[in-house]
Structures are given as C-alpha cells and as structure tokens.
Amino acid sequence: MEYKNILLTEEGRVAVVTVNRPQALNALNEETMTELKDCFTKLGQKETVRAIVLTGAGEKAFVAGADISYMAKMNPIEARQWAKYGHEVFNLIANLPKPVIAAVNGFALGGGCEIAMACDIRIAADNAKFGQPEINLGIIPGFAGTQRLTRLVGKGMAKLLIYTGDMIDANQALAIGLVEKVVSKEELMAAAIELANKIAGKPVAPIVLAKELINACDEVGQKAGEVLEGECFGMCFSTEDQKEGMDAFLNKRKPNFK
Ligand code: CO8
Known about the structure:
This protein is α/β, with parallel strands linked by helices and 258 residues long. It has helices at residues 30-45, 68-71, 76-94, 111-118, 145-153, 155-164, 170-175, 188-200, 204-216, 222-236, 240-250, and strands spanning 6-11, 14-19, 51-56, 61-63, 100-104, 107-109, 121-125, 129-131, 168-169, 181-183.
C-alpha cells in the first residue's frame, strides 16, 4: 500500500512512523487510519523491526484529533462505525508484539491523545499539550479515551479532563501519569529513538511477554494475572536468551542476546 498521509522510516531495529498531514495538524481521517492500520500490521510482522516510534509531522502537532471535517456530517450509524474502526486500529497498536513509543511533539488532542495512550510509553516535548476536547464539539471521546485515560490517570482526573475539555501541558501530563517523560522539543526525537534502541537491544521474548502481561492487567484480576505470569515466566526458560543472560551474569561478561 502506498502511503499518502504517513511516513515510514527505518534505522537499524527501530521504525519511525510519522502522521503527515501538518496542514490539518495531523488530524486522523479514514485514509490516515487505514494507512496506520496497514503500516502497523506490517511492522508487527517484520522481524528486523524491534521497536517503533510514533510521532507527528511539523512543529505544532502530534495529532490534533480525529478529523472534524470528516466527522461533521456523519449519522449515528456511521459515527459508531468510525468509533469501532478507531478501536480496531488503536488496539492493533496497543497489542502489537513489540514496543511502540509515542514521541508527542505538540497537540495531542481527542483521537491524538487516544492514539498516544494506545502506545506503550509516551515521551512528550515540553511544548506538548494534551486533552480530550470532544465535549466542546458536543460529543464524547470515541477512540477509547474514556477507557484508556481512566486506566492511566484514575476516574477523577479523567472526568475532570473529559467534562471540561481543558488542555494540560506536558509537565501536568507527567504529574498525572499520562506521560512517562518530558524533554525539550529539540531533544524529543533523539530521546525517543534512543529509548527505542535501548529496548530493541533487549531479548525479544521477555519484552513480548511483559507487554502481554501488563496489558492483561486491564482484563484479568490479580490471581489470574499471577497464573499467566507464572506460565510466561516458565516460557522464558525455553529461550536461548535466558541461558545467555544468566550465563553472562555468572561469568561476569556482557550478554549477547539473539
Ligand atoms: N480535524 C480537522 N482539522 C483540524 C483539526 C481536527 N481535529 N485540528 C486542526 N485542524 C485544522 C484546522 O481546521 C486548520 O485548518 P485550516 O488552516 O484549513 O483552517 C488547521 O488544522 C490549523 O488549525 P488552527 O488554525 O485551528 O490552529 P490553531 O493553532 O489556531 O489551533 C488547535 C490549534 C487548538 C489544536 C485547534 O486546531 C483545535 O482546537 N483543533 C481541534 C482539536 C479537537 O477538538 N480535537 C478533537 C477532535 S474530536 C476527536 O478526536 C474524537 C475522536 C474519536 C472519534 C470517534 C467518534 C465517532
């Protein structure tokens, strides 16, 4: 598939996906969502890619939301379908068997905040702004914002943000646990790529299993989570990397993971 609204670059084991509609502050229309779906599906299957960075083109925005001009004339059935499509694409990212880091370089509003939340880790530039402003359009978040925001920041803070539609800055987002790190906007991409490379250098199976288990927190209780963890922990011992990691430690050398 040829991409018109996103850019894909790969350097070593890290792929960078850039939403590229700066004229509309990288708003997500159907075409962009379909390209993201295609791109993440392929990256998920590509063995040479071990970590992915998602960002937005231009100085101003990561993603300023779902495209309002695309949504304005939707009927209720179409809007419901659009929300479901968003869930499908963002779940693909959230459940991809490799880490995805959002490098939030400006406005992350509505669907933009929601796609950032579908990523594993969020690094924000100090000029980034976050919010779920849907209330000001007469709607609610529709790409799982009511669910992912609540899980990340708790019910009270999610209600404050969703009821008011107010934006918060990067440091406020850090304080409430919506992002994991804030850096200067000049340092953003280097920091995101450095982190992606660091994770890409770790053994693959434990990363995949850890992601599945941490995501499973949303679905299962403590007891079932511990059962799953035990199974996955055992599974690690069937890998070469476990033997290598432990042998390297015991012999006081650096591990050479496959
Ligand atoms: N959709 C479409 N176009 C957009 C969007 C958007 N979300 N955001 C910005 N643009 C466009 C503007 O229309 C403008 O285009 P033009 O130059 O042709 O007039 C261009 O981008 C630049 O934007 P501004 O001139 O507005 O730039 P400012 O710096 O003045 O303002 C803001 C920046 C504050 C980010 C402002 O653009 C804004 O408020 N944008 C909308 C933010 C928003 O409300 N986002 C949420 C959208 S709803 C959503 O995401 C729901 C997701 C779930 C959907 C599922 C429902 C079924």
